[in-house]
Write a structure and sequence with these properties.
Helices cover 46% and strands 4% of the residues. It is mainly α.
Amino acid sequence: MGEVEKTFIGGLHEKLAEDKIIDESHLEPNFAKEIVKHGGKDVMTCLQCGNCTGVCPISLKIDYKTRSIIKFCQFGLKKFTLEMRWVCATCYRCYEYCPADINPAEVMIALRHMAIKEGVIPPFIKLAATNLVEYGQSVKPDSEIERVRRELDLEDMPSRTRGYAKVVREINLLVRSTGYDRLIGIESEVRG
């Protein structure tokens, strides 16, 4: 299968570029039960209505939609699901609209825990943790934001204040002492 493109009525485009043959050796029948053990609800009760994807604020920006991920979980495609590039903002809008009450956001959190436990670290987790260790916040400070803040006569970002180095040291101490840095594969150094 080559690259296929779907165009929706609103003019949105979606490209499908994967053609995978899946046989029974790829299926793990206890995957749904594992998700429950890690804090998610039973994905087998999902009706595949699509409400979760329809209300997801980032669904138009990501390749794998919530509904699809839940379907992969129902099929038992553990390795495939844990290794795919998916993102969840954990805004819980999907939960508000889920008629089966499975709380897809909690399923995504359970999948994230399972992936990390198995050594599959999503790139956005590693980046956020690296920024946390380096800057004391999950997002790297942006010079453009600082420029606009100065123009608006707003005070400096907390990361630019004199006492903030102590905050970064404390964060590094927590990251190191809990083993989080080793778990997700980042180096943390107490900064002075």
